[in-house]
Design a protein that fits this description.
The chain has 312 residues and is mainly alpha-helical. The protein has 13 helices and no strands.
Amino acid sequence: MRDESSATRTKTITADHTVGLALGALGVLAFSMSLPLTRVAVQELDPWFVAFGRAVGAALLAWAYLRSTGAPRPTRGQWRRLSIVALGVVVGFPLFTSLALTTQTSAHGAVVIAVLPAMTAAFAVLRAGERPPPPFWVASIGGLLAVLAFLVVNGTVSGAVSIDDLYLLAAVVLCGLGYAEGGALARELGGARTICWALLLSLPVTLPVTAVAAAAHPPRADAGVWAAFGYLAAVSMFLGFFAWYAGLARGGVARVGQIQLAQPVLTLTWSALLLGEAVTPASVAAAFVVLACVVLTQRYRNGAPTPTVREA
């Protein structure tokens, strides 16, 4: 009976990991277009309006979702943790990337964003109580170095560190914190409710800032720019997190977070297709190396026990 119970639990954990990886990959695919479309949006719209306006639009969608599903209100402790999620992914990352991409290309932004998986894994240890084994860190760092080497060879890295790079670094640190805290909290609230409540919690800040930015610089843009803005609000800030936080909760923040190693290559691909930025054939080789490192990180189970995960 004990062996049968152990086998059943192992199958359940394996299934959760598989589903978590699939959901995480879907989230990364959604997020991979964020930098190119932010670059499009800030060319005609004020960066503060882009950063906070997208959060306001997503908050309206979140309100509709929570109302239609009859979601219970978070507890006091969960509200405190949601404030960390909001600081990282609702305010911090959109604001600092919008400021950086007013003058930098999205391809350049992919350089610093390549650090995000390692940052997420570090915060998974600090905030989510996870303890990946040493081989996990070796594979993770290997994937990071592969992405950075590809970007150097591709000519994306050049020049000294600028204020835009500091903006991007701030965005990465806050985003890694928001990912780890949100992934851990999604085990209790579900992925969809975690981002929805974080968006509503941020509304007293995001709405006034959006109004002031719109008054100072009336938003006027063509249809393509508004389409980019709409994607940032509906997908990058809302729907993408449904899959991403659910994936982190099921598969482990550190392990699933390594799928982000593929995001810089995807971002460069979108940059080439949407913005005409050049991408060399070396991207194919880099993609295979990154994929191999992601596979290696998934061979090592998280040191923390797998928790029960609530559905969204």
